Amino acid sequence: WDGFDFLAAPLGAERLEMARGALEQLVNEFEVKGRESDGKTVEPLRRGPLVINLLNAMGSSVVAEVLVEATFRLERDAQGKWRVSEVLIGGEPSGDLAQLWQSANAHKAERARADLEVVRAALEAFRRERGLYVVAEDSIVLMDHLSPRYIKRIVRLDPWHNPYRYAGTPAGYTLGSDGPDGKSGTADDVGVSSKL
């Protein structure tokens, strides 16, 4: 799940608040339709480029299945591959697409750093108690050693939905995310390491 806030820079705060307001209004209208339907299936509700199909209530929150109608313009890059150059949502430009991706990836990198800090703190607690770091070659085995005593929330996937990398010896470790490109050893990687 990603917050709306990372969209503020490329779209503008005013447009973002308008979109948030339109979505919230649509969800409220759909919820009322659902209550009035006496258990029957509720038809999708459309407002501009938004179409709401389904609401799933979960306690004090709800997950809304919303389709966003968009038009994409693509151009060939230097290698002859198609790349999205512009997005229109409801007939309006979505803003600077490159800035949108940069903003989204910066937001995800912050989340990855926060995840890695939680895991780093758990690794340090493990080392203080046992005198060594977790010896493993992947984050799955790492979490098996840390959870639930040293870490409450299992952290396996980075914000780009790839497994976090972990390599640990008794004396140190490297822990990281391959970043938006999904490739290890590139400039967009996010990571921490420790050596005794």
What does this structure look like?
The protein is of the alpha+beta class and 196 residues long. It has two domains: 5-95, no CATH class; 111-195, 2-Layer Sandwich (Glycoprotein, Type 4 Pilin), CATH 3.30.700. It is built from four helices and nine strands, in the order H-H-E-E-E-E-E-E-H-H-E-E-E. The protein has helices at residues 8-11, 13-36, 97-130, 139-146, and strands at 45-47, 50-58, 61-68, 70-76, 82-89, 92-93, 165-168, 172-177, 190-195. The chain has a three-stranded antiparallel β-sheet, with helices on one face. A three-stranded antiparallel β-sheet has the order 4-5-6, with no helix packed on it. Strand 2 (50-58) and strand 3 form a beta hairpin. It is extended and about 60 Å long.
